[in-house]
């Protein structure tokens, strides 16, 4: 429709004018802008966040024999030892190929996350495996139960948080995840998530949002205290 008070031609007509060789330059420029806007809108409609809602977990959860895999953490006396520990990425521990990454939340860069560990792994074995890299100050293996996990995610702006809410109802590893704005978030940048898969870690939750084009500034997960509903 054309606005009676506007001197501009309708968008559809403007695009057609683009094909007219003798159209005024100003009209042709507007036609080009209108066509670009229509193309951008079409691209936005094609990028639906829910298309990627079943983002695969970055870290394997189940071994070849069907047993559950968990993760652990190792903290060293200095950052150089942690950097050396990254060389053990892809090494074999107790018959399992492990992955080693630097913990993004380690301010002094002395802590690494170890994924792909068998659930019965003892922390002493983990410590021994990494002792060759340098003095180990702390080692732990996470024990995973069957309870669902809850999460908290904070974004830089409230607009990003609202965009993330479009993923409410996404299915991750067979679990339909519920999301809502955190009740304590005064600026509306923090979300609360429910019914994440058992053992789901904050790194995996961050990966999920990042793969959907939304990078949070803070992520945390914890085992739900019981049956939690949004």
Please characterize this protein's 3D structure.
The protein is an alpha+beta fold and 230 residues long. Helices cover 27% and strands 25% of the residues. It is built from 6 helices and 12 strands. The strands form 4 sheets. Strands 4-5-1-6 form a 4-stranded antiparallel β-sheet. A 4-stranded antiparallel β-sheet has the order 10-11-7-12, with helices on one face. It has a two-stranded antiparallel sheet with strand order 2-3. α1 crosses α2. The radius of gyration is 25 Å and the shape is globular. It starts with 10 loop residues before the first helix and ends in a 7-residue tail after the last strand. The C terminus is likely disordered.
- Let me know the largest β-sheet: 4 strands, antiparallel
Uncertain ranges: 11-19, 44-58, 226-230
Radius of gyration: 25 Å
Secondary structure category: alpha+beta
What sequence of helices (H) and strands (E) makes up the elements? HHEHEEEEHEEHEEEEHE
How many helices? The count is: 6
Mean pLDDT: 78
Our measurement of the CA-to-CA distance between the termini, rounded to an integer number of angstroms, reads: 43 Å
Oligomer: single chain
Shape: globular
> Beta fraction of the residues?
15-25%
Q: Count the E strands.
A: 12
Roughly what percent helix? 25-40%
Q: Give the strand order, joined by hyphens, for the main sheet.
A: 4-5-1-6
């Amino acid at each position: 429709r054309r606005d009676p008070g506007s001197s501009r031609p309708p968008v559809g007509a403007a695009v057609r004018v683009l094909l007219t060789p003798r159209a005024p330059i100003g009209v042709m420029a507007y036609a080009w802008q209108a066509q670009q806007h229509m193309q951008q809108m079409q691209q936005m409609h094609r990028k639906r966040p829910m298309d990627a809602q079943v983002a695969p977990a970055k870290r394997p959860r189940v071994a070849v024999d069907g047993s559950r895999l968990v993760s652990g953490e190792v903290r060293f006396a200095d950052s150089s030892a942690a950097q050396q520990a990254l060389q053990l990425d892809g090494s074999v521990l107790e018959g399992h190929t492990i992955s080693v990454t630097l913990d993004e939340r380690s301010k002094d860069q002395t802590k690494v996350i170890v994924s792909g560990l068998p659930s019965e792994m003892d922390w002493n074995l983990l410590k021994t495996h990494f002792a060759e890299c340098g003095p180990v100050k702390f080692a732990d293996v996470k024990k995973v139960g069957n309870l669902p996990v809850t999460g908290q995610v904070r974004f830089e702006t409230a607009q990003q948080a609202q965009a993330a809410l479009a993923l409410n109802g996404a299915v991750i590893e067979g679990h339909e995840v519920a999301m809502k704005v955190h009740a304590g978030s005064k600026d509306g940048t923090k979300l609360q998530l429910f019914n994440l898969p058992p053992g789901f870690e904050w790194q995996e939750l961050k990966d999920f949002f990042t793969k959907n084009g939304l990078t949070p500034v803070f992520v945390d997960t914890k085992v739900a205290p019981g049956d939690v509903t949004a």
